[in-house]
Amino acid sequence: MIEIAQEPRIENDIQKKLQTLKDEVIKSKNTSSEVQESVEKPTIIERATWDDKWSQIKEQYLKKKLWETFTVEINGKTYTKTADILPYFDANLKYENLKDAYKRIIVHHSDTAAQGTAEQQAKIIRNLEIWDRGFNDVSYHFIIASDGTILEWRPLGRVWAHAGETKEANDAATKALPGGTPDIAKTTGDEYKKKLLSYVDAMKKDPDYGSVGICLVGNFESNSWPTAEQQAALTKLLNRLKWSYDIPSDNIIFHKEVKTKVVEASGLTLVSPVTVCPWKSFTETEFQTIKTTLDKDSDQAKKKSILLN
Ligand SMILES: [Zn+2]
After folding, report:
1. Which of 3, 131, 213, 263 could form a disulfide with 162 if both were Cys (CB 3.0 to 4.6 A apart)?
2. For 267-287, what is each residue's pLDDT tens digit?
């Protein structure tokens, strides 16, 4: 069984927890006799292996307080960012393990050309997200390159933006923190924790919470399709994540399905621009075919709703 501290606290050492999360993926077991004890773990290229900027980017994950600044250098220029990526365990005291936290998996395309090696494809997206779009880090947990290589991106257990925003989450966050999230950074101790939790509680109406993000490299609008290697890798990765976190097959969806299947079905309002991600060249039929090859839902998975709570 997974052993996670019963009372995780913000002060806990984040690096240690990241290792615990990695171990959890390996150690966790289903209790249902109907499902496999374990499923094949696909080869995943670790972030430190492919990303030459990881030593700088990961600084934010090691901060003991959110909204502290960190810097990244690229092409001789220094970018200053603030560490505002929420961890499940340290910020959100509700969850004791990721099996409770993760309810769905959302599949995207990168909308970038699938050219060069897997590493080069990943770096193009990293640069686009961090340098051009101004984010702190890439938005997804995994990327699958056109040759089927799976690369690790955002550490599992961290929340960021890939699924969309709701009006209700934004309204609740504004109500909880009229001065905005920087107000949290001005506080310390119990006050810091109180403000942080009020913000996290508000943001639970946001579909990024509880969602693992997987991105396939390519623009599937019209001029490219997910390769056979990508689809095979996606199948393996989905099966492993489904088993690791007890996620039912019905809760594995395209990005464009978040609006109706998650947000509107929860009685909420999506305020993000309407997306067609991952576009039409990755068809619902192909996606459905992949999902039908996955292992059957565990008993725990069957109880998991796709809705926001
Ligand atoms: Zn998307």
Report:
1. 213
2. 999 999 989 999 888 999 999
